[in-house]
From TrEMBL:
Catalytic activity: (R)-4'-phosphopantetheine + ATP + H(+) = 3'-dephospho-CoA + diphosphate
Pathway given in the UniProt record: Cofactor biosynthesis; coenzyme A biosynthesis; CoA from (R)-pantothenate: step 4/5
Keywords carried by this UniProt record: ATP-binding, Coenzyme A biosynthesis, Cytoplasm, Magnesium, Nucleotide-binding, Nucleotidyltransferase, Transferase
Single Gene Ontology MF annotation: pantetheine-phosphate adenylyltransferase activity
One Pfam family cited in the UniProt record for this chain: CTP_transf_like
Function of the molecule: Reversibly transfers an adenylyl group from ATP to 4'-phosphopantetheine, yielding dephospho-CoA (dPCoA) and pyrophosphate.
Protein name stated in the entry: Phosphopantetheine adenylyltransferase
Species this chain originates from: Coprococcus comes ATCC 27758
Record-linked HAMAP family: PPAT_bact
SUPFAM superfamilies: Nucleotidylyl transferase
Length: 159
């Protein structure tokens, strides 16, 4: 059985993330979406809110589960008994960072491999940061995120 982790902040989850999640779920037996509690960032949504949104938008994918984590990804992989990490790549700048992380993770835990999936071209420009910025200025984010996520962002921005 192949169990993989797709880690990220998902603040918020975008159609680009969902593209990678959907495609990954067809490749592996079980996909664990690891929602990172990153102490270096100030997220728009709490980890609990991000987990809830991800569970909602992936509810139709039977082999996907959503789990929050903090600390080292390789430790999380050990806890989840996963030997594969999936990462999405939009551009060469993503690759430079991701290859460095992949090599570090492999050095820390040789049993954990990383698989890169290139993002669908229609999402190659998209990031959670862009979504937050467009939303902060009142722009239409419906083409970037699922409807339930757009609603949550709008509610959060109005607070």
């Amino acid at each position: 059985m192949i169990r993989a982790i797709y880690p990220g902040s998902f603040d918020p989850v975008t159609f680009g993330h969902l593209d990678i999640i959907t495609r990954s779920s067809k490749i592996v037996d079980e996909l664990i979406i690891g929602v990172l509690m990153n102490k270096a960032k100030t997220p728009l949504f709490s980890v609990e809110e991000r987990v809830k949104m991800l569970k909602e938008v992936t509810k139709d994918l039977g082999n996907v589960k959503v789990v929050p984590f903090d600390g080292l990804l390789v430790e999380f992989a050990r806890q989840q008994k996963a030997r594969l990490v999936i990462r999405g790549l939009r551009a060469i700048t993503d690759f430079e960072y991701e290859i460095q992380m992949s090599q570090t993770n492999h050095k820390l835990e040789p049993e954990v491999e990383t698989m890169f999936l290139t993002t669908n071209l229609k999402y190659s420009y998209l990031s959670s940061t862009i979504v937050r910025e467009v939303a902060a200025f009142g722009g239409d984010i419906s083409q970037f995120v699922p409807e339930t996520v757009a609603k949550s962002i709008k509610e959060k921005m109005s607070q």
